[in-house]
Amino acid sequence: MAEWQANLFGCFNNGLICLVTWIFPFYIHGLNSSKLGSDCIMSGCLFLVPLLNCINVTLVRSAVRQKKGIDGEVIFDVLASFCCTLCVVDQCYRELKEPMARW
Question: How confident is the model at residue 9, as a pLDDT?
Fold first, then answer.
């Protein structure tokens, strides 16, 4: 099985994405969801609802793990999503980013 290419606290490596995630997390989360086949606007709006945002981020992180074949347990997805929500959103963005995408 694979490992995360982007570690959880690697969000500080790309200042622009880090800044956008901290200011507009619903936008980056919506992009992540759309790359996994979900509705971008619905996911972005759900991010604005307390508690639902952490649940939705957990589901997206689990989907990223499954899509990329990354080792891990759902409990770690839950813990990361509830404790470091914005870091998880950023991590998923960096994991799903196309190799040639520029930000």
Answer: 86
Chain segment 70-93, per-residue pLDDT in tens: 999 999 999 999 999 999 999 999
Would you say 37 and 44 are in contact if contact means Cβ atoms under 8 Å apart? no
Give the pair of three-digit tokens for residue 89: 């959103």
* Alpha-carbon span 26 to 58, nearest angstrom: 14
* Residue 85: C-alpha distances to residues 2, 13, 100 (Å): 22, 17, 26
pTM of the model: 0.89
Per the CB < 8 A criterion, the answer to whether 95 and 17 are in contact is no
Measured between alpha carbons, how far is 55 from 46 in angstroms, rounded to an integer? 9
The continuous run of DSSP H or E covering 38 comes out as none
HSE (CB half, 13 Å, CA atoms) of 78?
A: 3
